[in-house]
């Protein structure tokens, strides 16, 4: 059984092992494959029966060109890189990796918030540049600092990652509210579901935890931003397309919201001229919320289990086209 990994570098830059997959067949791993060069994608899949991809798209054209393909494993939870309808027409199984990075993403969400609240990076740089050595006072602050206790933490979406994030917020003595497109039980007497407009009005922190769909794409736009407090902090560790990036940047520059912590963008890698790059009070990390080694090891283990299950005829974590 021939197995091809099209873009393995993000999952495994060299600190974890491919041996689990190698034990299941003849394995070829490419660190990167062009997202836009369909001919290269087809050529690299070759005569493989199994292909694994993270962000390299498996389009209708690719599926039609590779007659040997029987299985597509997405090395992520989101699977919009695969033409599911075309895969179904060709009898190709498609799987994803659910729930591997819940705690890592929740942790990173708070890393962004704490950086905004305490500005550790700026103060660390200041100290290393000698400002504390030359200070007349035993302390100084370069920026206003924010205490999170008592603030309202609002989560848009309330799946596993959002709930893990909410528990951290609760541990910081924050008031937790959440919006979900359908009724979702609270975790205790400390979190409650509200309407989206109410969340925007009340929250001191707005944290996004929904998939990117036709309904959610661009949901944080001028209308949503106008409902938020001028002191609000916006966090996005979900999908870049949830933001109208230009309107968010304008809101930051005009002081209509206080700050933003962003880990995902509409186009990745970041494009020159993205308005968020020059926006005021905007902390940006390069899509690393999922990338703790422990989370990647879990992802790899599930990927191996998915392939092994397919080979034995007991395919699991199957995804299908939405009707």
Automatic annotation (TrEMBL):
Record domain D-isomer specific 2-hydroxyacid dehydrogenase catalytic: where: 26-319
Pfam families linked to this entry: 2-Hacid_dh, 2-Hacid_dh_C
Keyword Oxidoreductase attached: yes
Ranges for domain D-isomer specific 2-hydroxyacid dehydrogenase NAD-binding: 110-289
Highest rank taxon of the organism: Bacteria
Alphabetical UniProt keywords: NAD, Oxidoreductase
SUPFAM superfamilies attached to this UniProt entry: Formate/glycerate dehydrogenase catalytic domain-like, NAD(P)-binding Rossmann-fold domains
GO terms, molecular function: NAD binding; oxidoreductase activity, acting on the CH-OH group of donors, NAD or NADP as acceptor
Family: Belongs to the D-isomer specific 2-hydroxyacid dehydrogenase family.
Protein name: Glycerate dehydrogenase
Taxonomic source organism: Enterococcus florum
Gene responsible for this protein: serA
